[in-house]
Amino acid sequence: MQEEVKPTPPTPEAPTPPPAAPAPDQKDIEENKGIAVLSYIGILCLVPLLAKKESKFAQYHAKQGLVLFIGEVIIVVINVIPILGQIIWLLGWLFLVILSIIGIINVVQGQYKEVPVLGKFGTKFKF
Question: How many domains does the chain have?
C-alpha cells in the first residue's frame, strides 16, 4: 500500500501592517501654537479659523474651539430660563472651561487630540 501524499496547503502570508499615520508637521505645530491657543478662548476661535487657513494644526484646534463656542452660546440662551437655566448655565460653563483648559494643554503639547465629549463634532466641519 502506498500512502497518499497530500499536498500541504500554502501558508497564508502575514498581513501587511497598515501604513503609519503621517507624522505631524513639526514646523507647522511650532509656528502656530500661539494662535491655536486662541481657539479655546470663546469667539477668538474665529481668529485661527480665518487667519491660518493653510495650517492644519491651527485649523484643527480652531474647529474644536468652535464647537466649544457654540456650546457657550447654547448655555447662554438656556440661562434665560429662571432658576433651572442658571443651574444648567453654571454647570455647563464649568464643563466648557474644563474642556477649554484641556484643549489649551493639547495645543501647548503639540497634539492633535479631540477635547472629550464634544470634540467629535469638530471633525465634522469641512471648511
Answer: 1
Per-residue pLDDT tens over the stretch 42-98: 999 999 999 999 999 999 999 999 999 999 999 999 999 999 999 999 999 999 999
User: 45 and 38 in contact (C-beta within 8 Å)?
Assistant: yes
User: Which of 64, 49, 59, 55 lies closest to 105 in space, CA to CA?
Assistant: 64
What's the pTM value of the predicted model, to 2 decimals? 0.74
Range(s) of the domain holding residue 56: 27-109
CA 57 to chain centre: 10
Please state the φ and ψ torsions of residue 5, each to the nearest 5 degrees. Answer: -95, 120
Please give the Cα distance from 92 to 8 (Å, whole number): 65
